């Protein structure tokens, strides 16, 4: 499970990421037909609220271990985040 507000914790996952961090990246790799389906998976499989999920995800996007583990997904999400920040 990720701890702290800035960096995900190291754990038993690949590349120093925790199992929870790995699971969050796995959810983001998938395509989702609608936000409701994704939210259901977040709650049922990961056992966390969508708010907590996005907090963990946002921290992962700034974690070099996540980038090393899944560069395609992390870079795609970073671009989306940067685009959204530009609209604000």
UniProtKB/TrEMBL annotation:
<feature type="region of interest" description="Disordered">
    <location>
        <begin position="1"/>
        <end position="35"/>
    </location>
</feature>
<protein>
    <recommendedName>
        <fullName>DUF3263 domain-containing protein</fullName>
    </recommendedName>
</protein>
<dbReference type="Pfam" id="PF11662">
    <property type="entry name" value="DUF3263"/>
</dbReference>
<dbReference type="InterPro" id="IPR021678">
    <property type="entry name" value="DUF3263"/>
</dbReference>
